[in-house]
Structure formats: structure tokens, C-alpha cells
């Protein structure tokens, strides 16, 4: 990474990601979720192969993805950050970015409060256009989180009916302590469901994100 890339990526995330929820324990409700160069670098484990891919449109940053790849019995590629600028969303940029990550990996994973990120990961790296299948998530999520080289991922705790008895509407989520406002994700989910796409991951609780693991299709 050249010196300008982390700086530009931090500014881009801070402008495009989202705002804090009223449940945020630090009282940041209504303010934008921000990051900086140090926090971005903390997402990149020293013992992993770290990947950064970005899309420029007429010289303007339109989207980027950070991911880390390591081997612990299986070849794992974890997507740590996927952000698309608002005016460039729903144009296939997220899918195109994710497709650049496809190599000889056994598993691809992501934590995100954004249903569009979950769906794009499934379609680009695993299931094609089929409905989301959570069998791989159910089988591997707990072990992958525990062994993750990404500190943020390693500290997450799975939640929902996919993993244990649950009556709160959640199915495949993890408690990451990220209290981001869910207004926009809820609107995105409603649009996805209106198109007839099955959504088996359930509801999001405060401070939780959806989790999905996919095995690549040929």
C-alpha cells in the first residue's frame, strides 16, 4: 500500500459508511462512523496476505474492498471492509470488486450490517444467483471467528437460531459491538425482499452484524 491509499480509504469510509445508532454506548448518535489510517491498518493482520482493491470512475474513488487471506487448515479469505459510494451503488461495482478476490480459497467470509454486502458476497463468491444457503456458515462460523487473524472478527460472538436456540428473530448474526444505525440497511433489505429474494439471516439486534461464510462454486 502506498502512503496515499490508507489515507484516501479512511476518508472514503468515513464519508460513505453510515451513522451511529441511538444505542451506541459512547453517545455518538447521529454522527458518522469514522475511521483513520491506524484503525485501517489494524484490520490487516501481519501474518496474513492483505488485499486492497478499488474502483476509480473518472479519477474518483467509487468503491473499495479490503480483505485478508490466511491458511489454518483451510484457505480462508475474509472481507474486512466493502464500501461503495452512494451515487455508484446498484451498478454491480460491489460484485465486480468481490470477484477480484476469487482464487483457490476454501472459504470466503464477511460480517456486515448491510444486506447488500451479504447478498453480493453470496452471489459473487459462492452461490451464484441461487437463494442464500447458510449450511456452510452454520458448519464453520464459530471455528473461523475463534481462529481469525483479524482482531475485530476474532472478538465477535455468533448469535441467532442458526447456532443456538433463539426467539428474538435473529438467525445468522454476530455481536461485534458496532452500534451503527440500521435505517438504511432496513430499506435495502425491504427492497431485496420485494424482488422475491429469500432472506434467511433474520433480524439484526443492536450492536450486531450479519455473518455469512461461503464455499466457492466451480
From TrEMBL:
Domain of life of the organism encoding this protein: Eukaryota
SUPFAM superfamilies: Acyl-CoA N-acyltransferases (Nat) (SSF55729)
Cleavable signal peptide: none
Pfam families named among the record's database cross-references: Acetyltransf_1
Occurrences of domain N-acetyltransferase (ranges): 40-102
GO MF entry, a single one: acyltransferase activity, transferring groups other than amino-acyl groups
InterPro entries with a match to the protein in the record: Acyl_CoA_acyltransferase (IPR016181), GNAT_dom (IPR000182)
Name of the protein: N-acetyltransferase domain-containing protein
Source organism of the structure: Patellaria atrata CBS 101060
Amino acid at each position: 500500500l502506498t502512503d496515499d491509499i490508507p489515507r484516501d480509504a479512511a476518508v472514503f469510509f468515513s464519508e460513505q459508511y453510515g451513522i451511529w445508532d441511538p444505542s451506541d454506548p459512547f453517545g455518538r448518535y447521529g454522527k458518522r462512523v469514522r475511521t483513520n489510517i491506524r484503525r485501517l491498518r489494524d484490520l490487516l493482520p501481519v501474518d496474513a496476505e492483505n488485499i486492497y482493491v478499488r474502483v476509480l470512475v473518472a479519477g474518483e474513488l467509487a468503491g473499495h474492498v479490503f480483505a485478508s487471506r490466511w491458511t489454518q487448515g483451510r484457505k480462508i479469505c475474509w472481507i474486512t471492509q466493502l464500501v461503495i459510494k452512494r451515487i455508484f451503488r446498484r451498478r454491480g461495482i460491489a460484485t465486480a470488486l468481490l470477484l477480484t478476490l476469487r482464487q483457490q480459497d476454501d472459504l470466503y467470509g464477511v460480517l456486515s450490517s448491510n444486506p447488500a454486502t451479504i447478498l453480493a458476497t453470496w452471489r459473487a463468491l459462492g452461490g451464484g444467483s441461487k437463494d442464500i444457503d447458510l449450511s456452510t456458515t452454520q458448519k464453520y462460523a464459530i471455528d473461523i471467528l475463534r481462529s481469525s487473524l483479524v482482531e475485530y472478527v476474532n472478538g465477535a460472538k455468533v448469535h441467532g437460531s442458526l447456532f443456538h436456540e433463539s426467539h428474538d428473530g435473529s438467525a445468522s448474526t454476530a455481536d461485534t459491538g458496532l452500534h451503527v444505525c440500521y435505517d438504511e440497511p432496513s430499506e435495502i433489505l425491504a427492497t431485496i425482499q420485494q424482488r422475491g429474494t429469500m432472506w434467511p439471516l433474520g433480524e439484526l439486534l443492536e450492536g450486531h452484524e450479519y455473518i455469512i461464510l461461503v464455499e466457492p462454486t466451480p
